[in-house]
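Record type: monomer structure entry
Structure origin: computed from sequence
Chain ID: A
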Amino acid sequence: MESVKLSILIPTYNFKTGIDEILDCLESIEDDFRDYIEIIISDDSDEEIIKKDRTKSLKKHFKNYFYNHNIYHHGAINNWNNLISKAKGDYIWLLHHDEYWQKEKNIISYIFSVINSKKPNILILPITKLKTKRIFKINFKMIQKHVTFKRMMKTYINNPKLLIKSNIIGPPSALIYKKNNFYYDRNLKYLVDVEFYIRLFNSYNSKKIILGRKYFDLISIQNNDKSITNFLRKEIRNLKKIEENYIFNRYNLKFNFFEKTFCFYNYIILKLYSFCKTKIKIDN
């Protein structure tokens, strides 16, 4: 019996557009990899978001496919942790319902090649943000890279507390990491991913953290009113201060003047560069 190499964990909540994109991606996975992949979907939606016939079809193609519609809402963080607790793969990929990969780029083959050849503790995938705006009855599609630079990324990995000031990693979907006993902190809402990254990076040798090739990026749907960021939008400013203090106190962290200045200028540089690289297309 083949062992599970990769657990793809998918928490979802009332966002059918996103989950349909992900299911299309799963169905595009080559047969050679299917026996080594575990797919677990935990559905916190008001009603079952995946039709029974599609679940039946996926079960035929993946012997390790599991879908569960939660009778009672777990809430975002509990849903993530519940999925992590069930994972049996050597590596974990917590893929959110508003992120998916481009099917034509064969990202699964790339992930397995990295896992098998380099045996990383963490693989970090690049992110591309996709947002659509309607102006004067015309749909404009904005494509924006979650930009960073290799040297800058290495600095943040070696000193992950810097992520509190600027999360250059992106959402949890960007990480594929070796299975461990880490869970997301239920005391946090906005900086919950950053706090997790701090613990994760501090626990591993940075030489075994691999930065994924830019060609194999994930698409993040920004027009998603079910995302945590949109839920918290009105309270983000105050919440961020509270949660920063929580993390500082928990890990006895401090920022010196150089670190604060470094983070500030990096933030400005990345924002400007990202803006310059943004592509706008008319979406018919």
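Annotation 1: The two ends are 48 Å apart (CA to CA).
Annotation 2: Residues 40 and 66 are 5 Å apart (CA to CA).
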